[in-house]
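Quick question: what would this complex look like in 3D?
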Amino acid sequence: MDTTPHDFIRARIVRDLNDGTVKHEIITRFPPEPNGFLHIGHAKSICLNFGVADEFGGQTYLRFDDTNPLTESEGFVEAIKKDVNWLGYDWGDRLTFASDYFEQIYAFAEELVVRGCAFVCDLSAEELQATRGTLTTVGQNSPFRDRSIDENLTLLQKMKAGNFATGSRVLRAKIDMSSPNLNQRDPVLYRVIHAAHHRTGDQWCIYPMYDFTHCICDALEGITHSLCTLEFEDHRALYDWVLDNININFHPPQIEFSRLNLEHTITSKRVLRELVDQQFVNGWDDPRMPTLAGLRNRGVPPAAIRDFCRRVGVTKQENTIETELLDFCIRSDLEEKAPRCMVVRDPLLLEVTNFSGEDIRLTANWHPKLTEFGMRELVFGRKIYIDQTDFSEDPPPKYKRLVPGGIVRLRYAFIVRCDEVVKDDSGKIICLKVTYFPDSRSGNDTSGLKPKGVIQFVAENNALPIEIRDYEHLFLSKTPSSSTWQDSLNSNSVAVSNALVERTIYARSEQHWQFERMGYYFRSPGHDSEVKPVYHRTVSLSQRW
RNA sequence: UGGGGUGUGGCCAAGUGGUAAGGCAACGGGCUUUGAACCCGUCAUUCGCAGGUUCGAAUCCUGCCACCCCAGCCA
């Protein structure tokens, strides 16, 4: 089965290869800004850029777009590298930083000045904004627009030398203040910021803007296809203008695609930062976060994310993907990777009144279909636990579990009948007295009984405690607004409960598990055998009833 | 209102003049010692709308409508 994607970008690459536009290998880049963690939206871009290079035998740079020392830091660089790696991609020796090119970028700025294509502007940020014009009215030329080349060069050099205060002067491209494209209205190329940079330290006090930096870095690295999201479409004219007006011998094409939006999710770094800062979550890597680190901690396998990105496709259409698709990808990956076991969330004691003597040892497959997973031993005895929700005195229609007087199959064990419901003074059920049918043993059932349902159980003598954390969406709305996100914040996005598990899994090394009839769970790393293990719900099982 | 984009079923998405792929979801059924998985089946006479060209249009032309992005010394 051919699952290789065929989208307009890959079609473009094939065309460029066939008509000789690209004569050698395909080179792409993934250019994150190290001012936050990567999220599921970035995964789409990573899979696209690295995926395309893989498919066409090319290479991909991991290039940090670090031109704003005020918001960026080394910590984010490391987190991003870890996440890209985890997702399954390798940049080899192609790890670069925009700051690696500061010297060259500055030289191009001087070149622009010498060519009369850029000027130093003394307008304040407010004045600049006031003279930029609006969507429907043209802007006004800066009074500094016609400075001589010599004066501009001297001023630019003084900016670089640190003679001017932060924000006091900028270098602007001389393009067209009446352009209907706001980005072309003499955009700022360089600004003065007296701040230490995480890589270059105090070496610079002027920093290039994105529009000036990105195209130059792309050209310098020989990027054959510069892929970015739709909001940069208006910037393409500037991208091209810069490369057309400096002496550089390569001009990558910028190609835009629509970013990924997910229901119940916000992928705005600003909002994610607020969630972290205001402690609505426990950090960027909280399992509820849509960050790659968060998804990893929830137990989402990288292969599932790659599959998800593949199924989502690449187009220029705005889209909001249903969370069901991501869930589907996670389940289908875990279905054949996760061993099964039985867990009881809210234990309800069953006393098997006709059972006495030694516990019975039973065996069960770790996986219902994949025999290579092997088997484990189960215990059945006089006292066992089932989930409270698997018993009902007042069952809804089509209820298939245990009811007073009814029978149910205990998975991999025996059929039991509920004879008596024992309650305390307050009416709370404390125990169920049941009878088991010795001839109904799994695999050797001669009882002739046909219970409607099967439920999981753990024998008291085989139970060990664990903590499970069940997660829900962070936002109630399918399309939470990044400006009013607090309004739809889910105050019950995590439910912590104590549960009982078959004791054998304490010693197992697997992290991914399917707790039968409950969902896929992920054992939190960092919990050794001394303490009660914590399991995060990666995704529930699909429930069609 | 200027500019840049996008409109194919609930959500994605193929399709590039020859008579609407596929996935997710949903629904119906089968199988089942996980209400899981798996298997079968159903799900756009129609492609934002209106005209036009053509033997034939989602695909070409004209007009209109809707939605998204742009007025950071952020990226």
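Answer marked as accepted. Chain A has a mean pLDDT of 96.
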